[in-house]
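Changelog excerpt

This revision adds worked examples to the README so contributors can see how folded entries look when concatenated. The first example is reproduced verbatim below.
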Amino acid sequence: MDAQLFLHAAATGDVSAIQQAYLKSTAILTARDPTGRTALHLAVLNGHLAAVERLLDYGISPCLTDHNGQTALYLAAQLSSATIAETLFKRGATCCTQDADGKTPLFYAYQNHCIDVVSCFLKSTAACAMDTQCSLTPQIVLKARANRKWTPLHAVRLHGP
């Protein structure tokens, strides 16, 4: 199976085709489309949780970026997919990265009013709290959790500049 077919399998959620390609060559995980998106990006983009889980099981990194500097977590945030975002967090994704426009995945979740995804980010900040470059400081997270409401100040603090 060539790279294009593998990427198509990820985009359509064809887990058996993903498995067949992987068993033929583990190097297939490095395949990218013209925009630099990996199979994981494409599975997330199309909402295929089973494909996302399989790709992560095979060792594809949730931290790989496309040409815009976005990881799969950015796509989950933009598409209101809390389940996929949670899966990515459990497998090592971080909310602390900035894309080419200087925005974080949380910015897109908040901008798109994806409350479930924003809540998922807040629940998953334990790992981010260990990262000195993360904009989700424990104080702001705890305050937002305690108040159960968001203000524009929270948004600015959480999104960075």
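The second example, added in the same revision:
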Amino acid sequence: MSRPPFLELPACAGAYRLATGRGEFAVHDARPDGPVRGTVLLVPGFTGSKEDFLPLLAPLAAAGYRAVAVDGRGQYESPGPRAEQAYAQAELAQDIAAQAAALDAGPVHLLGHSLGGLLARAAVLDDAAPYRSLTLMSSGPAAVAPEQRARAKMLIDALTTMSMEAVWQAMRELDPPEAAGETTPPEIAEFLHRRWLGTVPEQLIGTARQIAGEPDRVAALAAVPLPKHVLSGAVDYAWPVPLMDEMAERLGARRTVITGAEHSPNVERPAETAAALVSFWNEAGDGAGQGDAQ
């Protein structure tokens, strides 16, 4: 999971519930002081939340982009039903389209991190019209690596028989090797715990099945005439970096590898990540006129 280095919203951002045709979603919305070059919708990953994008909000707004990070349905501060079918990929993809429409900014630059990349891909494949570009951040062509599929299955099994608190404690014992030795500030550790307990168990079960069973849909995505960007760290435990290199080639996408980052370049190297994103979005089209009323 992404571990934000801080929890304070930058001065350019506000927190509220975005009303859409498919319900309300908790968001962080960062806006430039001057003209808006474009609007970006940021979709978090498995066990994640809008807070995973906090380090990107200020630099994106400073570059002229309105950046909106969202909690998906049943994810942390967004409500969701206690029914696994509510978290089918098609349902979550329609949520993304509804969020994009509710921003009232014309086509948005869509970015999905990890699981969020799979959901963003599904949204684009369903209907590309609401989007100006697609960025897949630390998200691969199909299911996660075998050891992560096994972890997802263990989580599904645990969530059917254990409390969220008990599963949280068990998951801490299964953190990836690269997390060993990390020191997490108490306020961040408390937030991660609170976020976990605030997430609907069926959301975790449904999305765990997705990351463990996702088919390769790269060929279909390559046929969509939309600017694409594959961005990752130099190391990734969920999808091997060479696999993302190959996916970018198959997509004809821009490829960015953030040196010094692993699965979460958004929090591990936010300045470099923001610069790469802005460069891509500037090239993909600045969306002149969109968001003038924002």
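Reviewer comment on example two: The chain has eleven helices and eight strands. The chain has one domain: 13-284.
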